Amino acid sequence: MGTQSLRILLIEDDTIEVMKLKRAITKLEMNHDLIEAEDGEKALEILKTIEALPDIIFLDLNMPKINGIEFLKIVKEDAVLRYLPTVILTTSNNRKDVLECYKHGVAGYIIKPLSYEEYTKKIGIALSYWSENELIKA
After folding, report:
1. CB 3.0 to 4.6 Å from 108: which of 9, 14, 71, 87, for a disulfide?
2. DSSP string spanning 84-98?
3. Which pLDDT tens digit goes with each residue over 12-27?
């Protein structure tokens, strides 16, 4: 599908959602590298200690410790991390959340559909798009 393999940081506290994304990537036969963080705090630790930064971040909004919007604010204040495309992957279609995320420089906002087929299709489109982009390799 896409031309380059992506390093994806998934920030998601729900194990089932993590499994769902892994299954979608496998089903789509996309060869992407998935890094998992169960909350924003863990994700920040990973971003500080990892050798190669991810190409893209998939971020859930409703998480313990640091929620998605708080995480976004922290990342966008960092001189290096602010350039990482961050895509919200959430069940919330709350207009206030959408506006708040775009206000803090989010690269996309995907609402998780109920149907697995629709979910896989949305993930496929998002990953194809980002794998065709010129990304900053940090």
Report:
1. 87
2. S-EEEEES---HHHH
3. 999 999 999 999 999 9
The 10s digit of each residue's pLDDT in 76-130 is: 999 999 999 999 999 888 999 999 999 999 999 999 998 999 999 999 999 999 9
Helix (H, G, I), strand (E, B) or coil at 110: strand
Residue 55 lies in a domain: yes
Residue type, 128: S
Domain region containing 39 = 7-132
Examine the pLDDT at 49 and tell me if it is beyond 50.
yes
**What is the residue-wise DSSP string for 5-67?**
--EEEEE-S-HHHHHHHHHHHHHTT---EEEEESSHHHHHHHHHH-SS--SEEEE-SS-SSS-
Is residue 50 a part of any domain in this protein? yes
